[in-house]
Every structure is written in C-alpha cells, then in structure tokens.
Amino acid sequence: MTCEKVDTFKYVVEPFDDDFTGRLSWNVLGKHVLACAERHAGARGFDRLTLDGHQRFLWVLSRMVFEMDEWPRLGDSYTISTWVRRCYRYFTDRYFDIANDEGHVIGRVFTIWAMINETTRKPQPLNELFGHTFDPYLETERPCDMQPLSRIRVNTETPVSIRPTYYSDIDQNNHVNSVRYIELILDTFPKELFSSHQVKHLEIAYNTESYCGDSLSFYTQSAGPDDYFVVIKKNVGHPEQPLGETICHSAVTFAPISKKTKQ
Amino acid sequence: MTCEKVDTFKYVVEPFDDDFTGRLSWNVLGKHVLACAERHAGARGFDRLTLDGHQRFLWVLSRMVFEMDEWPRLGDSYTISTWVRRCYRYFTDRYFDIANDEGHVIGRVFTIWAMINETTRKPQPLNELFGHTFDPYLETERPCDMQPLSRIRVNTETPVSIRPTYYSDIDQNNHVNSVRYIELILDTFPKELFSSHQVKHLEIAYNTESYCGDSLSFYTQSAGPDDYFVVIKKNVGHPEQPLGETICHSAVTFAPISKKTKQ
Prior knowledge:
Chain A is mainly beta and 263 residues long. The first copy, chain A, has helices spanning 26-42, 126-130, 178-186, 193-196; strands at residues 7-12, 49-51, 55-68, 77-87, 91-100, 105-117, 161-164, 197-206, 215-224, 227-234, 245-256. In chain A, strands 1, 2, 3, 4, 5, 6, 7, 8, 9, 10 and 11 form an eleven-stranded antiparallel β-sheet that branches.
C-alpha cells in the first residue's frame, strides 16, 4: 500500500476520445476522473467494500465541479493528479488537477463522495465502515482554488427535453452513471455553441439516483450571458409522485474558445 | 513508415470502461477498434486526406461485423490486431482479432470502409485519391473466419423508440458516430437480457449518415430464438420524405453468458 498522498495518472487524447471539435470529450475526461478516484482510493485500502460476506458498499458522487481553462485536443498528453483533502462523518472531499504535457495546470476538479449501502442506498459513516481512517493520506497543503458553489434554481415546469434511460446509461453501481448526466446536460445545448465556445465551469449536485427505465426530464434557465442552470428530474407525471424527484442540479458556464485551444 | 502488415495494440479494461455487468462496454471496444484502424492506416500513409489545400476526405464505415466468443472484464488485458485484406475501387476490407492476455483469440471484427469527400459526402475511388496503393500492406494469408453476412429485413412500420440526436452523438466527421449506433441498437433491448446473455454476433450495414438534430426511429424484429434485426431510420414523418431514410440495418445474436466469462 502506498504512503503517498497524491497519485498522478497519464493519458493521451486517442482517436475518438474527442468531440466533433477535436477537444477531449466530457465522456472520456469524466470517466478518467472517476477511474483516478477509484485507483487512488483502492491503493490506500478504501475500495468498494464487502462486510460480513454480503453487505456491499459503493462510493457515489454527491457533488462534482469542473473548472477548465484549456481543453486537451486530439493527440495531446495530459495528466490527472488526485488527492483527498478532508474526510468527515459521511463525506470525503477529493480534488484533481489536470495538467498539460508541460506540467501547467489547465483544469481543476472538486468532488464530494459518500459511501452507500448497495441494498438500502443510504450513506454510511465512513470511519466506522473501514475501521481505519483516511488521516495519513489527507493532503491539506496543496492549493485547490475553486470558485464558491452556485445556488442553482430553475423556475420553470416545462422541460426542454425528456429522455428514457437504457442499458448503456447504467454502470456497475446499477444506476445511471454520474458522467452520463454531464453528457445529457450538455446535450440540452445546441451543437453550434460548442464550435465557438467551450465549457469553462460545470458543477453538478447529485440529489438522488436514477435507474434503468426511469424517464429523465430536463429543465434549463439562463443565469447570465454565458451561464445556465440545468435541473434533471425523474419520472415526472408518475401517478404516485406527479412532480417527480430531482436527480441533480447543475450550473454550466461557457467561454469563447481561446486562441491557445483553437487550432 | 512501417512495412509490417499487421499492427497490434494493447488495452486494459479500466474502471468505467465496463458495462453494469463488468464486461467491456461496446462504447469502449468499438472506439478502440476505430482508433486501431485509424492508427494502422495512418502509419501507412492512408490517413484522412486534404487535397489541393481544401478538399478533405474522410474514412467512413460501410459495414461492421463483430463475433465475440468471450468478453474481457474489468481489469483484464486484451489486444486488438488489425490488417487490410482487400482494397478495391471504392472499398477496403479490414479485419481485427481481439485476443485475451494469453494470446487466445476471443473475438473477430470485419469491416468495410469507404473514403468520402467531406463536402459532397460521396465515396471516392481509392487508388486515384492516394496516388499509391495499399498493395504492399495487404495481408491475404491470415485467417479471418467470419460467418456470411445476414439478409436483414424488418417488416414493421411501428418504431420501438424514437430518439433525437445531440452534441455528444457527433464525432469529428460531423455525423453521428458509427459506434454510437451500436449503443443505440443495444438500448432497444431490456437491460435484464444483458445480465444473463452477452452479444455473440453483431453486424451493422451503414446506408446513409445522420447529423445532429436528426430524429432516429428504431424498428426491431425477432429473427430466431436469440436473433434480432434492428433497423434505424431518420426523420420519419418529415413532410418532404414521410417514410424517412434508412441509416442502417443491423443483426444481433445473443448467447447465454459462458461460465468462463461469468465471474
């Protein structure tokens, strides 16, 4: 088991890891971020857990914030470094730096995780679960300058789109993958916007899970010239719960593509 | 430039490269197959092409057939080997072997590619384009035993689902990515089927492209106990072309999960 606090993983934007503009796709970046978290936790004995031979516990995201100054493009190398800053009763704060091949930080990610019981889907106090603490691994010195979190409100009851969920949306936790929501949120914007703009800030607060077969409704609201709020609800109009349940709140800020990124 | 005929690329099923059952996801496998083709062609001077400084040409898939005996699972290493067997006026036949970490072939892929003009979207005679032939690179000896192609017919006009296309469906060729169709086809099946079964054979014949904003309709038909046909049409009901246009024909065969794969 490693005694380092920070792990760094190296990647290259391979063919088809990019979006139509040649920038690293959200799907690939998001999954790499999740995979780095899983590897870093696993190397320190904080894997997904099975207790008493049957009770399984899974890490799930409570919040995820991306701040991207530049996007890696097809063929570019980049690294993702990750560390845990805080671990409290039910939650742990994990940070990531994304650096280009010159070692210059081009993006930052802040995440809050909980561990849920696979059956009850309820969060569990973390120290009691593992019987050992994350304390030796906490990295409290490394800077992690992120903007304060947004207050996200959407004042509309008219969805811009409604999408069912399917086999390919579901991950090993048996719920819609947390990165998949990011793709679905960005799909509420016109493709043309991504020709001239890139996402500079994206944050998502996960309230509840959704499962295969759930129907997702998307509600959007402008929050500034390049700022948008997007809320996803599930199963709106269901007879037992006509207002549905909020899955996540999200805020997205676009910025014109920088000359440095445009090629 | 290499003078080898076959290139082999090594992969590992990383966290979140898998589906909910822990098997390598179609999205990741398909994109790796496309990336191997692009790298193999590029290393031999058959990249995407720009002529006279402005006419661009892109490789597009005409047909793609997967035969999978076993699926790599989370953490497994596997390799993809690829070579070109034939190159004729408008098309080229490319094969792939997928091998497990013991070097045992667990899957085979057969593809037919054309090169289209980016503006007209019409296929171009290949030899005239490149001014040199693929002949020195043709691998005609290596076995590539694939089943004969299916005759795919769907006799229904009632779609099982209709899905718009969005930003995240589109790749650098500015059309819906060819692997994305595979995900969409498999999403017409209930998730539960993938708990007990795996895809053994999947073939897809691409007729025309679809673009961001097109509406995709899915038509399915049983073709045997574990065999299904799926046809995707675009913009059905459009006033100028009410019957829509067929994007692709597909055949899918499931098999019960082998003990070797189930873990």
